[in-house]
């Protein structure tokens, strides 16, 4: 079984290989469009097979049966399939027919063009399935575009290669576990990163979507969801992911998108994620110019939704081209005030809020300017706050988006807030890691934001509940620093400490973790030098060792160890017994929630660091492995091997070749480490010996370069030389042997040359043995994968998944202690030199200078 990660990697590598210099934002339309057409063809064959074919058949046989049946039943067969799917693909226009043409050498681009055009025509004639109309219009997929190749042959070659990318993927089978949808979403994200500023037209970064989706999913009973600037549909689908399977079945999706190509991408994306056509209503239109969706029976109320999510264009200029007036129902909530023509941020917000149900939740991403800009935006903000619609403001880091480096914020809005309820302000702008030029929210950062929102938590330096009085005092300016004070981690300097030395008592008292955990140890390591000031009287290494080996710290570590072992035992069986890919996400959510609960009662441990440890296990191993286990079973997956494909060559010679085998879920290196430790050690010993020989040869090379030495006389002529006859950093084997033949036996020169010759021979011999033994070991591992016992698989997979988990979580006990010990060391160094010591040093330097000056002789 192929996993979503393998599909993602293969398709993205293929995209990079094939698109050449073509702009990524344009190439995505071709790649994702043809991928979707393969899905439509596979679905057509699936429905035909279910209704007309008995018993197992190959794909080629199925296509042949479909072709025969179409000849026999004609349009009746078309109508039968169309009644089920809302569309059909005739045999001669199947994706599989393109592949047959390619394999027979009869492929023509026109066949693809005809197929796409016929699909469009059948929908137009039938009048059904608006969800599929226009997906393959020439404006989206123009196969005559010279960007695909400067001539017909080039275009044919590139389109053929693109078609072959999806040849062996059964899109219907992959859709059932959402593997296909995940791969599609991944490709959209990758194209977004490559597209730069154009990415904003169709993609919201995953981590931003996650924050919005989790908040919305956890705070509303959702039966309908709306994204007025839907892009590729990623926000809608991220919310879907966080809802139960039961809720997903009845969920209705609405979205509007101005860009036609992106509108098509949205529909494809939703359909590939298993959203039924009747459950999605996507419109190609301008959200601001014309309100949509509208209820004909209530023209002034608008259609309301349980959840609204939006990532609109930031500060859109000339947004009011339709000449909207303040009397427009969408602006009534702010008393008809229109946002400025130069910035459409509040126009999008008010549109979304207008369509939000009374008990729903809205999440929108906007630039920080909406929090503090003046003029009409200030008045709009004031009215939204006065009417109690803003529930939370979440500040995010800069550089999260591929299309802008500016920091953004998420606004959460509701219509059912209690009177006088404060606005939660969260400053998450400093919680991220860097990945090249981009900043990334880790899983723990997302979890902390969502938890702070759900719990309405006030956390020093991170979140604050801003009361109505505070907001009025700030004249309705919601700039985050006005409400969340930055915690200054820098410890203020103490003047007396610098003048007279010693660590101030206040700084020692501020070491809360050490004071509450091992106060007696800290007190014993500090000596007073005067009232309120102390010096450290033990080396920091000794203090660290004493603290970490203290019984209270060890007891706390043992508690964490026991809890972690119980945690692992709880999920070990569940992970091994997964038999449906639909179980994977709920189990992951359960594990992540459980680890937070488990650590939340432990003082001084950062719960979210523990959360990240478990999230990394899922990212690095469990997501991939559980997919394979669900597709077969634990022990079958453990005894499955896959070709190890490597890329060789460059340019036109670049190709993929098999280089042995790898375990599907059991890593080869772990098999070697645990089941072939003696063989592995023997190889390592030889490699160590090779390193020793290389060191000895290097010493002899260096000695040979020293003039008037025995080594120089004996070995210089055996050194490699460059074109200028300058000695290099190694011996040349041929020269060593030539010099050895000329040398007289039992002389120093002969002995040194013989020594070098022996070392080179020994190194060569060892190299051959290492190569042979490594090959033997690899081959043994390839075969061992197939016959691993159940017990071996248990041990190896347990180590792969949870080998360091206990130690990693136990380290969380030590982290705050070590941080405070480091602070204590810094303070001790800061105040080690008092003013009098510095004065004495200055006086000494001045005396030394005077003495030196007096000794100078003027000639």
UniProtKB/TrEMBL annotation:
Q: Does the keyword S-adenosyl-L-methionine apply?
A: yes
Choose any GO biological process term that the UniProt entry carries and state it. DNA restriction-modification system
- The residue ranges of the DNA methylase adenine-specific domain are 176-487
Top EC class of this enzyme: transferase
Q: Which SUPFAM superfamilies match?
A: S-adenosyl-L-methionine-dependent methyltransferases
Q: Which InterPro entries match?
A: D12N6_MeTrfase_N, DNA_Adenine_Mtase, DNA_methylase_A-5, DNA_methylase_N6_adenine_CS, Restrct_endonuc_T1M, SAM-dependent_MTases_sf, T1MK-like_N_sf
For this protein, the record's Pfam families field holds: HsdM_N (PF12161), N6_Mtase (PF02384)
- UniProt EC number: 2.1.1.72
What positions belong to coiled-coil segments?
Answer: 828-855
- Which top-level group of life is the source organism from? Bacteria
**Protein name per UniProt:** site-specific DNA-methyltransferase (adenine-specific)
């Amino acid at each position: 079984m192929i996993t979503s990660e393998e599909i993602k990697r293969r398709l993205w590598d293929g995209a990079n290989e094939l698109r050449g210099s073509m702009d990524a934002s344009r190439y995505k339309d071709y790649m994702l469009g043809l991928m979707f057409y393969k899905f439509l063809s596979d679905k057509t064959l699936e429905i035909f097979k279910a209704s007309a074919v008995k018993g197992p058949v190959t794909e080629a046989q199925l296509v042949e049966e479909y072709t025969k049946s179409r000849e026999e039943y004609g349009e009746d067969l078309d109508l039968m399939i169309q009644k089920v799917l809302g569309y059909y693909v005739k045999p001669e226009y199947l994706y599989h027919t393109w592949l047959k043409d390619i394999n027979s050498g009869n492929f023509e681009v026109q066949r693809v063009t005809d197929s796409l055009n016929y699909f469009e025509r059948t929908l137009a004639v039938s009048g059904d399935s608006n969800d599929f109309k226009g997906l393959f219009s020439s404006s989206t997929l123009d196969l005559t575009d010279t960007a695909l190749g400067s001539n017909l042959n080039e275009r044919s070659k590139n389109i053929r290669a693109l078609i072959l990318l999806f040849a062996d993927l059964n899109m219907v089978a992959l859709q059932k576990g959402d593997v296909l949808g995940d791969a599609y979403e991944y490709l959209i994200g990758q194209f977004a990163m490559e597209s730069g500023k154009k990415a904003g037209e169709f993609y919201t970064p995953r981590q931003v979507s996650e924050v919005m989706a989790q908040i919305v999913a956890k705070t509303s009973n959702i039966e309908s969801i709306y994204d007025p600037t839907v892009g590729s549909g990623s926000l809608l689908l991220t919310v879907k992911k966080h809802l139960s399977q039961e809720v997903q079945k009845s969920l209705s999706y609405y979205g509007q998108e101005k860009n036609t190509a992106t509108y098509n991408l949205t529909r494809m994306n939703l359909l590939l994620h298993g959203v039924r056509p009747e459950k999605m209503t996507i419109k190609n239109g301008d959200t601001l110019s014309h309100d949509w969706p509208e209820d004909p029976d209530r023209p002034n109320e608008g259609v309301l939704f349980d959840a609204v999510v939006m990532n609109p264009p930031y500060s859109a200029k000339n947004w009011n081209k339709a000449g909207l007036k303040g009397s427009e129902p969408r602006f009534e909530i702010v008393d008809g005030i229109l946002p400025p023509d130069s910035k459409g941020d509040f126009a999008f917000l008010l549109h979304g809020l207008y369509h939000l149900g009374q008990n729903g939740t809205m999440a929108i991403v906007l630039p920080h300017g909406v929090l503090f800009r003046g003029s009409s935006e200030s008045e709009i903000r004031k009215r939204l706050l006065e009417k109690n619609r803003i529930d939370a403001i979440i500040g995010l880091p800069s550089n999260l988006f591929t299309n802008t480096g500016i920091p953004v914020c998420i606004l959460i809005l509701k219509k059912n807030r209690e009177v006088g309820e404060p606005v939660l302000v969260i400053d998450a702008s400093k919680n991220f890691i860097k990945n090249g030029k981009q900043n990334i929210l880790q899983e723990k950062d997302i979890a902390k934001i969502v938890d702070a929102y759900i719990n309405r938590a006030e956390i020093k330096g991170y979140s604050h509940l801003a009361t109505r009085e505070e907001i009025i005092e700030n004249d309705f300016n919601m700039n985050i620093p006005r409400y969340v004070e930055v915690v200054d981690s820098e410890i203020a300097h103490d003047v007396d400490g610098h003048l007279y030395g010693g660590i101030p008592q206040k700084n020692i008292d501020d070491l809360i973790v050490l004071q509450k955990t091992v106060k007696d140890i800290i007190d014993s390591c500090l000596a007073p030098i005067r009232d309120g000031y102390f010096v450290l009287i033990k080396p920091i290494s000794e203090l660290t060792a004493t603290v970490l080996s203290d019984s209270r710290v060890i007891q706390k570590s043992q508690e964490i160890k026991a809890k972690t072992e119980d945690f692992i035992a709880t999920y070990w069986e569940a992970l091994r017994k997964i038999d449906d890919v639909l179980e994977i996400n709920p189990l992951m959510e359960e594990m992540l929630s459980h680890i937070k609960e488990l650590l939340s009662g432990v003082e001084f441990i950062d719960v979210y660091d523990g959360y990240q440890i478990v999230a990394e296990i899922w990212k690095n191993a469990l997501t991939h492995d559980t997919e394979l286990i669900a597709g077969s079973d634990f022990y079958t997956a453990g005894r499955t091997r896959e070709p190890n494909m490597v890329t060789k060559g460059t340019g036109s010679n670049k190709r993929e070749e098999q280089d042995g085998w790898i375990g599907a879920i059991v890593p080869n290196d772990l098999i070697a480490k645990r089941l072939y430790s003696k063989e592995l050690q023997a190889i390592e010993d030889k490699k160590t010996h090779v390193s020793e020989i290389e060191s000895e040869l290097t010493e002899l090379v260096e000695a040979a370069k020293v003039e008037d030495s025995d080594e120089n006389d004996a070995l210089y002529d055996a050194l490699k030389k460059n074109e200028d006859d300058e000695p290099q950093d190694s011996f040349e084997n041929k020269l060593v042997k030539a010099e050895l033949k000329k040398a007289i036996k039992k002389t120093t020169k002969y002995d040194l040359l013989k020594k070098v010759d022996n070392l080179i021979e020994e190194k060569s011999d060892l190299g051959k043995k290492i190569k042979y033994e490594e090959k033997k070991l690899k081959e043994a591992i390839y075969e061992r994968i197939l016959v691993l016992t159940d017990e071996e698989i248990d041990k190896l997979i347990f180590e792969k998944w949870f080998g360091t988990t206990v130690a990693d979580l136990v380290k969380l006990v030590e982290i705050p202690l070590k941080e405070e010990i480091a602070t204590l060391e810094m303070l001790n160094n800061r105040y080690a030199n008092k003013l009098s010591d510095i004065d004495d040093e200055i006086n000494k330097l001045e005396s030394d200078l005077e003495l030196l000056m007096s000794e100078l002789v003027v000639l």
